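Deliverable D5.2: sample structural annotation.
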Amino acid sequence: MKEIKRLLSCARRAVDDYNMIEDGDRIAVGVSGGKDSLALLYALSELRRFYPKKFTLEAITIDMGFEGMDFASVEEFCRSIDVNYTIIKTQIADIIFNVRKESNPCSLCARMRRGAIYEAAKERGVNKVALGHNFDDAVETFMLNLFFEGRIGCFSPVSYLSRTDLTMIRPLLYAEEKDIRYFASHTYLPIVKSTCPEDKHTERENMKNLLREIEKNNKGLRHRIFGAMQKGEIDGFHL
């Protein structure tokens, strides 16, 4: 199937370029229920069949407590691809929106979710956590840091976290969002729609729209930005 071949090609190239996987790795995929994390899970489940460095795989969902989000279909999907699946129930949504009443909740939410998945990963003897950030996420993060923080930076393709002794990897780094969207629509991934009130109302969404508009008259802009990140040795992007 050409859809999975393209996605696998992107994942394999990123894994090889940045040495993301070693023999004996135990990798947990952080599964939000969105298309990116589910596509990553499926890609890695296929990659483990033939990748020369053998690794094991499992999936972890941090249930933040938003009403209307049911992960039963994700659980069934994980069974179908022979991946152990764990749902960690939390009160993150209640803490952020009702207790603290955060005016800018996304940053705190991200930190709390990361903390929860790190703890879950350590409890399961995992040494690496794979996240579904894609090519577009990298470019948008770089531009957000430039626009709003006045600094040159991005998340890293591979990050070792000494405090938790975990390594974060992002195997979809070369996969464009449009390709993931196409893959998801042709493979019927069990996408769970987010019921977070901030969904689609963030600075990231605004940056996504801005880049889309600019690129209409500047074809290849995002690829040039990504290339500049690699050439400029930004946060581990240099090859």
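Annotation notes: The first helix runs from residue 2 to 17. The two ends are 30 Å apart (CA to CA).
The annotation will be released with the project's public dataset once the embargo ends.
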